Automatic annotation (TrEMBL):
<dbReference type="GO" id="GO:0071391">
    <property type="term" value="P:cellular response to estrogen stimulus"/>
</dbReference>
<dbReference type="InterPro" id="IPR001846">
    <property type="entry name" value="VWF_type-D"/>
</dbReference>
<dbReference type="InterPro" id="IPR015258">
    <property type="entry name" value="Vitellinogen_b-sht_shell"/>
</dbReference>
<dbReference type="InterPro" id="IPR015819">
    <property type="entry name" value="Lipid_transp_b-sht_shell"/>
</dbReference>
<dbReference type="GO" id="GO:0032355">
    <property type="term" value="P:response to estradiol"/>
</dbReference>
<keyword id="KW-0325">Glycoprotein</keyword>
<keyword id="KW-0758">Storage protein</keyword>
<dbReference type="InterPro" id="IPR037088">
    <property type="entry name" value="Vitellinogen_b-sht_shell_sf"/>
</dbReference>
<dbReference type="Pfam" id="PF00094">
    <property type="entry name" value="VWD"/>
</dbReference>
<feature type="domain" description="VWFD">
    <location>
        <begin position="86"/>
        <end position="262"/>
    </location>
</feature>
<protein>
    <submittedName>
        <fullName>Vitellogenin 1</fullName>
    </submittedName>
</protein>
<dbReference type="InterPro" id="IPR050733">
    <property type="entry name" value="Vitellogenin/Apolipophorin"/>
</dbReference>
<dbReference type="Pfam" id="PF09175">
    <property type="entry name" value="Vit_b-sht_shell"/>
</dbReference>
<dbReference type="GO" id="GO:0005319">
    <property type="term" value="F:lipid transporter activity"/>
</dbReference>
<dbReference type="GO" id="GO:0045735">
    <property type="term" value="F:nutrient reservoir activity"/>
</dbReference>
Amino acid sequence: GKIQSNLGEWVPMQKDKISEKQIQLSMIATSKTTLDVILKAPKMTLYTLGVTFPCFLPMGCGTDLTPFDDNIVNKIHYLFSEVNAVQCSMVRDTLTTFNNRKYKTKMPLSCYQVLAQDCTIELKFMVLLKKDHASEENHINVKISDIDIDLYTEDNDVIVKVNGMEISNDNLPYQDPSGSIKIKRKGEGVSLYAPSHGLQEVYFDKESWKIKVVDWMKGQTCGLCGRADGEDRQEYRTPSGRLTKSSVSFAHSWVLPSESCRDESECLMTFESVKLEKQVIVDAEESKCYSVEPVLRCLPGCLPVRTTPITIGFHCLPVDSNLNRSEGLSSIYEKSVDLREKTEAHVACRCSEQCI
């Protein structure tokens, strides 16, 4: 490629004093599209000036560009992947997807939602978010390889846990044993970097969060942040592959539901196909209708303490038809949409001691 041929045009310089076992590579961005490259070896120093870069380089504070200070390979990897990284973010209740589409969402309490994940069979990373039931503050969980990272706030400070062990401020920056994942303080919050895993950056503070994925993950992500494919007209695609018109239904479809109110996740909600409370006339026939999109509802033995309106698609059947709840409702999600109506989704629940 063009960069490789330019890098081959080395000009030797006088010998510089460095360790006999050291090679030092420096790249200096002289503009958004050019680099000066200097390679220092034990016996000589080589350089090439004005290397033309095929796209814009990220320009900014030096500390932002070099989270991997002690690893030249990861540093270069980060710099090159930052060029075309795409970003998803949320401030208060407004989420901006990778494709730059904005929507407001009412998050359920205590249930994790998938913000972004690698949707290929490799599943290189997953970023989850839940809102704490008591404080209603955000809690981010990042899964990369065999590492589990939690980011949340406590007494106005961001707490970092790696595989359940808290990492104190004194021990930040933190780097995993492979050197490919780094966590460090950034402004008022904390940033996680793992570009070689497809995750350019996850930033988290008390008021907001943002996720950046590398260029080669475009079109391979899924979750609340979308596919990062530049196609915002199909942004509201649920895990089942169905395209919904409701931002609330889309957001709720990425919730990780619970099976029991006693689950460790503390999520008190599950998905249901709900029956439309009124009967309607479809094709001149009195009909009963069931939602073809799953709706968040409190678990058995639990009651809703907060709800949000949601407009979704319903499939209708003759009112005298038999619908086996175990078989019929499991296949109802595959049915066509006959009409769109408003119903209620549960976003906070309270359970009795007898719940199961």
